């Protein structure tokens, strides 16, 4: 959203107060902020009572900036907290997941008792394969229940899961396996996408050619058909897991035991292995889930429409919901698998009460027309959430009216892989929401907007978003690289966590997130760095130089635009341009993922550079977004950028 558009919305002062009916039953009471903020550490200690501890912690926070320990002397088991204790409390028959397949008509209902059996059997199988406490296990799986089971079984052993989104390429998978030295991989033969099988195992086989330390691969049969098999290394899930005992006696681990690694893009070409530990992460996932989604475990059917390959899936499909013992919908497919009204049919069939998704999906659903949600009974919904990127007010209003029937509060939740759980959000039943604003820090969280010097800005002003006090689910660092952790997050504003986002405080002091201010792009809620894509492009033998920018896009939020200069070999000179461009797009898909394919590649004989030789990305972004070019006098050759703008225009008009 442009600054001017935002101002226009702010001027309208549109706001939605919670309804009396919602207030009456809301989990969040108005005293919550005061209680939490009077003594945040004590309040977070109280929230830890949501968990079952083997040994209750006596310490809450040890803070040696930027390294935190929460509940440091407590011991617990994540998997027991998610599953065993609900069964022990007599809720074994309660549904944990209504799993809905990509293919129409296929679904599975998994109760907590069944989940416990599956987790125990899988844990026993992992023990047999040699997995031990502290080992890293990579998961590269579609959205099937076994993916959740695998995560919980790994956690149950005190091992560490590193889930890699199944849309990533073999190269991306192998670099992640190598970085954290995973010795085991859990995968599936394939996944279903709009009814058609799409293989996964070949990517694992390719990735493992460069990962000699991987000892065993456990493979779920999902799609059927032939698979390449490495004897001694590869094992079928149905052969290894299903013959195991259905019980497993868990061990308990220190609160600061590492639970998970999740790779995310930073400003360099190499993704960072963000890791989270157990006690603090689970406490904040459970607490935020309870209040922000106003969870009523006895009646709710909650649907986080995300993939377990991202942190949203970890925190709000697996850990937050399971600790709360709720019933969820887990959906394998795409929004239009089996038709563009598929989501609304799922809401209707399972009577979903809460829906949590990304703005980019909302915009896509919106493009498909009002008739589709109107054609289904969505009256079970009582709360809606969004995450992943700033939501434009138009999409927010459409979500409210056409999905929420003007009755459901919307929570726009700001957080990051690094923060582990939601940090800035409205609270349903308390907050008067504004379309497009994430509003206020969650109770017990201290956030600020600061200027270049690190001073708080006043109301009506913008700046950089920082977090000013430690929080339970904060990342404990970048796996294997504490120095990079300090430098990336804690040095820009000493003593404060620098999120990398721009933010604005409006006249009422409420927070609006304005997007990344660094070289991180947000494509359909997926985080990618410009450098990572540039690196992939220059890795192609024909490319001399590449500059990548994120340009705003009506559907995907941002889209990748790449400016590429080719090495002029005789062979390339004879190729037609569209062929070269398509080859480069496929190359990026192969090196990173199809989600990283540039929307547009502009072949240009030169790139605009400053006299010191730096590529002027700001100018390229102006070009990519059709903005008029500002001051270009610092460029070595100002004509270059005009030439590129010309190339871009020719390209755009030929596409129309
Ligand atoms: C980046 C973090 C957190 C799960 C999904 C993304 C952007 C996230 C919002 C929001 C505006 C948002 C930020 C942030 N972002 N939520 N509600 N409003 N921006 O996790 O991949 O680690 O990306 O997503 O730019 O820094 P992630």
Strand order of the largest sheet: 12-11-8-6-7-14-15-23
Overall strand count: 30
What is the general shape?
globular
Q: Helix proportion of residues, in percent? A: 25-40%
Q: Pick out the low-confidence regions.
A: none
N-end to C-end Cα span: 24 Å
Strand percentage: 15-25%
Gyration radius (Cα, Å) is 25 Å
Which small molecules are bound?
Answer: 5'-O-[(S)-butoxy(hydroxy)phosphoryl]adenosine
**What is the CATH architecture descriptor of the domain at 112-251?**
3-Layer(aba) Sandwich
Q: State mean pLDDT (0 to 100 scale).
A: 93
Can you tell me the CATH class of the domain at 112-251?
Alpha Beta
Largest sheet: 8 strands, mixed
Question: Topology of this protein?
Answer:
Layout (H helix, E strand, L loop, with lengths): L2 H10 L7 H6 L6 H7 L1 H8 L13 E4 L2 E4 L4 E2 L1 H14 L3 E6 L6 E5 H18 L6 E5 L4 H12 L3 E4 L6 H10 L4 E5 L1 E4 L2 E4 L1 H8 L7 E5 L13 E3 H4 L12 E2 L3 E7 L7 E6 L1 H14 L8 E4 L6 H14 L2 E5 L10 H9 L3 E4 L1 H9 L3 H4 L8 E5 L5 H11 L6 E4 L33 E4 L11 E6 L9 E2 L3 H8 L7 E9 L5 E6 L3 E4 L2 E4 H9 L4 E11 L3 E10 L3 H5 L2 H15 L8 E4 L13 H8 L14 H17 L1
Parallel strand pairs: 4-17, 6-7, 6-8, 7-14, 8-11, 11-12, 16-17, 16-18, 18-19, 19-20, 29-30
Antiparallel strand pairs: 1-2, 3-13, 4-5, 9-10, 14-15, 15-23, 21-22, 22-24, 24-25, 26-27, 28-29
Helix pairs in contact: 3-4, 5-6, 5-7, 5-12, 6-7, 8-9, 11-12, 14-16, 21-22
Bound molecules: 5'-O-[(S)-butoxy(hydroxy)phosphoryl]adenosine (WT7).
5'-O-[(S)-butoxy(hydroxy)phosphoryl]adenosine binds next to helix 12, strand 20, strand 24 and strand 25.
């Amino acid at each position: 959203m442009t600054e001017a558009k935002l101002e226009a919305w702010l001027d309208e002062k549109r706001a939605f107060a919670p309804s009396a009916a919602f207030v009456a039953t809301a989990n969040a009471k108005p005293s919550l902020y005061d209680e939490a903020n009077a003594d945040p550490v004590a309040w977070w200690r109280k929230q830890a009572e949501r968990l079952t501890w083997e040994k209750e912690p006596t310490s809450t926070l040890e803070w040696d900036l930027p390294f935190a320990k929460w509940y440091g002397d407590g011991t617990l088991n994540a998997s027991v907290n998610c599953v065993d204790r609900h069964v022990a409390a007599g809720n074994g028959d309660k549904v944990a997941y209504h799993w809905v397949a990509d293919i129409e008509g296929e679904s599975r209902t998994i109760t907590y008792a069944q989940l416990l059996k599956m987790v125990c059997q899988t844990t026993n199988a992992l023990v047999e394969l040699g997995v031990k406490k502290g080992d890293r296990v990579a998961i590269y799986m579609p959205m099937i229940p076994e993916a959740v089971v695998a995560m919980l079984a790994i956690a149950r052993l005190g091992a560490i899961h590193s889930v890699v989104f199944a849309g990533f390429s073999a190269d991306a998978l192998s670099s992640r396996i190598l970085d954290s030295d995973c010795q085991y991989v859990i995968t599936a033969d394939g996944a279903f996408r709009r009814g058609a099988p799409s293989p996964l195992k070949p990517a694992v086989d390719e990735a493992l050619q460069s990962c000699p330390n991987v000892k065993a691969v456990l493979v779920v049969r999902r799609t059927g058909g032939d698979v390449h098999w490495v004897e001694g290394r590869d094992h079928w899930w149905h052969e290894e897991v299903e013959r195991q005992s259905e019980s497993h006696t868990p061990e308990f681990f220190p609160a600061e035991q590492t639970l998970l690694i999740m790779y995310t893009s930073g400003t360099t070409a190499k993704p960072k292995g963000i890791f989270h530990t157990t006690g603090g992460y689970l406490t904040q996932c459970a607490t935020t889930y309870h209040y922000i989604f106003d969870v009523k475990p006895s009646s709710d059917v909650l649907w986080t429409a995300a993939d377990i390959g991202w942190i949203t899936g970890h925190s709000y499909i697996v850990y937050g919901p399971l600790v709360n013992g709720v019933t969820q919908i887990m959906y394998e497919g795409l929004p239009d698998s089996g038709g563009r009204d598929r989501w609304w049919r799922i809401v209707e069939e399972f009577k979903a009460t809460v829906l949590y998704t990304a703005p980019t999906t909302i915009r896509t659903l919106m493009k498909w027309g009002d008739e589709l949600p109107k054609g289904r009974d969505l009256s079970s919904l009582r709360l809606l959430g969004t995450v992943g990127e700033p939501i434009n007010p138009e999409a927010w209003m459409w979500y409210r009216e056409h999905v929420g029937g003007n009755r459901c509060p919307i929570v726009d939740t700001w957080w990051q892989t690094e923060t582990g759980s939601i940090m800035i959000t409205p609270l349903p039943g308390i907050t008067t929401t504004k379309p497009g604003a994430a509003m206020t820090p969650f109770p017990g969280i201290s956030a600020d907007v600061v200027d270049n010097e690190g001073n708080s800005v006043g109301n009506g002003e913008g700046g950089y978003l920082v977090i000013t006090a430690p929080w339970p689910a904060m990342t404990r660092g970048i796996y294997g690289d504490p120095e990079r952790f300090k430098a990336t997050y804690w040095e820009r504003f000493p003593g404060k966590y620098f999120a990398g986002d721009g933010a604005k405080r409006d006249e009422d002091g409420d927070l609006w997130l304005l997007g990344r201010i660094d070289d991180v792009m947000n494509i359909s809620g997926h985080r990618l760095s410009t450098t990572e894509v540039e690196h992939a492009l220059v890795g192609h033998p024909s490319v001399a130089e590449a500059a990548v920018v994120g340009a705003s896009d009506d559907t995907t939020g941002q889209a990748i635009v790449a400016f590429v200069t080719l090495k002029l070999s005789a062979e390339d000179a004879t190729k037609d341009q569209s062929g070269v461009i398509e080859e480069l797009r496929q190359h990026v898909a192969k090196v990173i993922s199809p989600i990283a394919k540039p929307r547009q590649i502009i072949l240009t004989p030169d790139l605009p550079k400053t006299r010191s030789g730096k590529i002027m990305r700001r100018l390229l972004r102006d070009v990519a977004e059709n903005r008029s070019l500002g001051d270009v006098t610092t460029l070595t050759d100002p004509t270059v950028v005009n030439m590129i703008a010309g190339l871009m225009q020719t390209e755009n008009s030929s596409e129309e």
